[in-house]
Design goal:
heterodimer; A: about 260 residues; mainly alpha; two-stranded antiparallel sheet; about 0% strand; B: about 190 residues; Rna Polymerase Sigma Factor, Chain: A; Arc Repressor Mutant, subunit A; 2 domains; 10 helices; elongated
């Protein structure tokens, strides 16, 4: 056997090689391949060091809390309808004979109808049935103005946050989490509208909020200081205020101030 | 399929929205893990988990009762994560250059949010490997993560990515080769 290729060795490591017994025999007899194989194994073992950060035991509950309000209800009769469908489908073979008979009957009825129509010579007005498009039900509407208002208040609070007050850290983090969810809806909408100014500001806000929510150790003095530095460096508060005034101007000229997004 | 999952799905489809809650709680951790490994970013991974459960809920009526909900929602999460990585690649300009200079490679490793002290403390090596993973295409990265870290077979990877098993195998192969090339200079340096 010739020397093993990388593909052979990768396949061997993952137990999906085409001829594992032959590869094993070759590795036992060929020092060069055995060395390369050991190197490859070591490299892949190194990649195991990438570990996902641990989530606490309440993580699943938080996920549920964040999506619960976005879920529409299934109609209560859905299962019954589905069962009826499958019950009918289960008797498909039996039903086929009825279908054949039904088709024959329909053909006869069609022919009879044509003859009748021809005899009557009275064309009926054709009424086209227009099916009104079902409005897509918005599940959540986030009003951008309200969002920016809340964000501005949060940023002001952050700007003046007391480093030594642990009591205010938890509500701030909760507020940041709530704002983060709303901000992502607004970002998605802004990205579709090609509004660069809005998108950039919401991106900066998103980054800041995500950090506030995910800072290891919570919002302690160091983290708050870091967030304040970032907020000042990116001018997030200024951007939010500019956007608010822009929206306020627009609201003065338009009747629809809502500029939020729908999920 | 897990009887609890099955019962919960039946309840949801019968109009009990809250029955979806236990499914979310039960599978969130595993979804976060795979989402993080594919996106390499905590915030993105959390978004992916939420998006996957939302998509899953909306597609629940098409869910085959014989299938396993865990596997099904896992696939949805893999798709969401893959989409997110592709979108991100489209937006961001890569910080990693094409140089093969080992010194430069070491300098290029950077955690986006953390300062140097934290990098040092919370796993510099992990950052290096994460940076190496970031050089892969979205498909290669996902295929590698699923194969190497999630122990999926190439058939499962192919199904999750919507590609042929052989294409999945090739993606894993290319990923391993690229990672080794990327990490080789660092190994020599250490």
């Amino acid at each position: 056997m010739m020397h093993l290729t990388d593909e052979d060795m990768i396949g061997q490591i993952y137990g999906e090689g085409e001829n594992t017994a032959a590869v094993e025999r070759h590795l036992a007899s060929c020092g060069a391949c055995a060395y390369n194989f050991a190197e490859l194994k070591r490299d892949l073992l190194e990649m195991d060091r990438i570990e996902a950060p641990a989530r606490d035991t309440h993580y699943g509950e938080r996920v549920w809390a964040s999506i619960e309000s976005l879920l529409p209800l299934y109609a209560p009769g859905y299962i019954a309808q589905k069962r009826r469908w499958w019950s009918w489908n289960g008797g498909l073979a039996k039903g086929l004979s009825y279908v054949a008979a039904g088709a024959l009957l329909a053909a006869c009825a069609f022919y009879a109808g044509r003859v009748f129509e021809h005899n009557q010579q009275q064309p009926e007005a054709k009424n086209e049935v227009h099916v009104a498009p079902q409005p897509k039900q918005p599940i959540v509407v986030v009003v951008l103005d309200d969002h920016l208002d809340r964000s501005e208040r949060f940023l002001v609070e952050l700007k003046h946050a007391d480093f030594d007050s642990a009591a205010m850290a938890s509500p701030m983090r909760d507020e940041a989490k709530s704002l983060l969810a709303a901000n992502r809806v607004c970002r998605k909408n802004a990205a579709q509208s090609d509004d660069l100014e809005l998108t950039t500001a919401l991106d900066h806000l998103d980054s800041l909020l995500a950090q506030a929510v995910n800072e290891p150790g919570g919002l302690n003095a160091d983290n708050i200081s870091k967030l304040q530095d970032q907020m000042n460096a990116e001018g997030v508060l200024f951007e939010v205020r500019v956007l608010r005034s822009r929206i306020a101007r627009r609201a003065g000229t338009a009747t629809n101030p809502a500029e939020g997004g729908t999920i | 399929m897990d009887k609890n999952d099955h019962a919960a799905i039946q309840a949801v489809l019968a109009g009990d929205k809250d029955a979806y809650g236990p499914l979310v709680v039960r599978h969130s951790q595993s979804l976060f893990r795979v989402a993080y490994r594919i996106t390499g970013n905590e915030a993105d991974a959390e978004d992916v988990v939420q998006e996957a459960f939302l998509r899953g809920y909306r597609k629940l009526e098409g869910f085959e009762s014989r299938a396993n909900f865990g596997t099904w929602i896992y696939r949805i999460a893999v798709h969401c994560a893959l989409d997110r990585v592709k979108r991100r690649r489209g937006h961001e300009t890569s910080r990693v250059g094409e140089s093969n200079d080992p010194e430069q490679d070491q300098l290029q490793v950077a955690d986006r949010a953390a300062g140097p002290e934290r990098i040092l403390l919370s796993g510099e090596i992990s950052s290096i490997h994460q940076a190496a993973l970031n050089t892969l295409t979205a498909t290669e990265r996902t295929a590698f993560v699923l194969r190497h870290m999630e122990d999926c077979t190439t058939a499962e990877i192919g199904a999750a990515l919507g590609i042929e098993p052989n294409a999945a195998k090739q993606a894993v192969f290319r990923a391993v080769q690229k990672l080794r090339r990327r990490l080789a200079p660092l190994r020599v340096a250490t």
